[in-house]
Amino acid sequence: MKRHSFFSFGCGLWLLCLLLTGCHSTDPTTGTTTVSGQVVTYQTNKPVPNATVQVYHLSSGGGYVPVGTGFPADKQGHFAFDFNADNKFGYLLMASAPPGYITDWGRAPSLTAGRANGDITIPTYAPAWFKLQLMNTSHLKRYSITIQGYSGSGELIYNPKDTVLIRPTQAIGVKTSVAWGIIDQATGSSSQGYQEVKPGPLDTVAVQIPF
User: Fold this and answer.
1) What is the CATH code for 127-210?
2) 28-124: CATH architecture
3) Neighbouring-strand partners of residue 194
4) What is the DSSP letter of 182?
């Protein structure tokens, strides 16, 4: 009698699991995840050729980390691939392409793990460049210049000369500014300046910095 009850109880669990569509086999956060879509330029929606698409997942410690290596897109920005989702954290798609196209984290599309994800558009900001023209108008030598407003945290230049510097940025489609501060190393006096800019995709914008 006891054996029969145990057998019936075990069969009941198996049947319940089957009715619940296979328990873990249909967990939407695990298993094969298919992805397809196109990489485009954010401002124009035109395809970005030969991009690399990278999957990122949210780690348990916070922040996103890459999942494996990137997947190639074709000359029209189209991509299709699959990967195995093996945790319950969120997934994002980022794309990059030469000479400097890149997806902003705030615009990266998310994925539903363990499911088909089709017709995804990955926007990228096109690169642009600043042509910084340093011009010594005082003919003094002991200056330092700090410059900010482009990719990176800015830079500090000691004893600058008349020169031209090329620095990368992203064409985000809104006005921004390149700002600088100048310190006379002999007297300690300082001055500031800035120039409003709105670089377009693949543009080079000249910024004059007199000192």
Assistant:
1) 2.60.40
2) Sandwich (2.60)
3) 179
4) E
Domain boundary assignment for the chain: 28-124, 127-210
Is 127-210 in the same CATH topology as 28-124? yes
Q: What does the pLDDT look like over 63-109, one tens digit per residue?
A: 899 999 999 999 999 999 999 988 667 899 999 999 999 999 999 99
Length of the chain: 211
What would the two tokens of residue 136 be? 């010594």
Q: Phi and psi for 24 in degrees, rounded to 5? A: -75, -15
The amino acid sitting at 62 is G
pLDDT in tens, 34-53: 999 999 999 889 999 999 99
pLDDT tens-place string over residues 126-138: 999 999 999 988 7
Burial of 93: CB neighbours in 10 Å, binned 0-12, 13-18, 19+:
buried
**Identity (one letter) of the amino acid at 19?**
L
CB burial of residue 42 (10 Å; 0-12, 13-18, 19+): buried
Q: Using DSSP bridges, classify how beta strands 64-66 and 30-41 pair: parallel, antiparallel or unpaired.
A: unpaired
